[in-house]
């Protein structure tokens, strides 16, 4: 590859000050985000002040400073802390948990410093004021960020407010990157093209702009925001370093995609050794205190949901019984953790002889892989179609969770005939308990391809954490009431 620095000599102004949009497309959104956070923080502090002190001005214990000044200082410090924690970094907004983590850390640091100052200088701050302002402000900030993210994600799914990206690498790896970025439009990466040496025309629907050696020229020519280099790129250590040097005086970000796929951030640790960034990947953990905690929380939550939705479950049971006087529950053998079979409960949504009629419908199968699915299955009853539409038929699985056979969140529980057709890698789905919901359900459900469903389940198995469970359960509630959830 030609020297990356030498390429910059052929660019306008040597490639040093080429015109570029520099994520200016996000400046309006980020400015609005700052204004929103300021309003929310001010509101939280004001509510805490009025709740604790009313409209009367009071002084801090042992000092002649009024709490009005403390409240003003707290607002300023809070906003400053959010900026220090990079809560307005355009590279993290819209996708992943990092954005929420930055907001939470910014809030926590403010009150941690306040507590340290109070202890160090023996200042008696009103506890009621602090104990209300912190959780209220943090909750408002996270809620506001969630609402703003919904708006941003909607724009990004329509092709707006996204980084313009050029990919670099061989055709196979570039195709993999294209697929990954297309699966996450909320991340804000719009692939314009690729620079590859072993293909021409298109790769995975993306135009090939030229060989890898032309990446810098093409980046300026197409006014991109990001150059993403895969692990297969032929730049080499020297070429990649020179490309970084050529881009450092521009507004173009350099992103390096390692060869490891479907590994979540908490399992990845980057450790530089003599200038070489070594990536440590922790092995997934299937036993230990966290798994015990998940089991306990699953059962407590299942019990709470059962008590809360008891009237709904009773109404569904009556509707199923009245329609054809048949049994209310349907039991089916499924394969659980470590290949152990169990009886999974569901509200019956099909006619009584549904299993006997399955063989006659095999030719009409619309499911992927070993799955059998029909969008308009003639065996489904009228009540069954309704409860399937809103996933009410799956509520009896709460009993399976209470019995320890299933989890609230996990891979889809497979049938024995499906497991018999599993590839070797797919058996890793059975390392954990199957779930009532999972990544497969919030990502398309019946509309997913078999390979994509397996990929999502394996990602969950190897990258489970409590935050991921909460995210899946939150999104499950939204998917269930959605008009295009892919449930049938």
Automatic annotation (TrEMBL):
State the membrane topology: Multi-pass membrane protein
Its annotated compartments are:
Membrane
Give one Pfam family, short name only: CoA_binding_3
| Record bears the keyword Transmembrane helix | yes
Which intervals hold domain Bacterial sugar transferase? 294-481
Highest taxon of source: Bacteria
What molecular functions are annotated in GO for this chain?
phosphotransferase activity, for other substituted phosphate groups
One term under GO cellular component: membrane
Q: What residues form the membrane-spanning segments?
A: 26-50, 62-82, 103-123, 129-148, 300-320
Q: What is its main location?
A: membrane
Going by the UniProt record, its keywords in alphabetical order are: Membrane, Transferase, Transmembrane, Transmembrane helix
Family membership, please give it.
Belongs to the bacterial sugar transferase family.
- Tell me which NCBIfam families the record gives: EPS_sugtrans
- Protein name per the record: Bacterial sugar transferase domain-containing protein
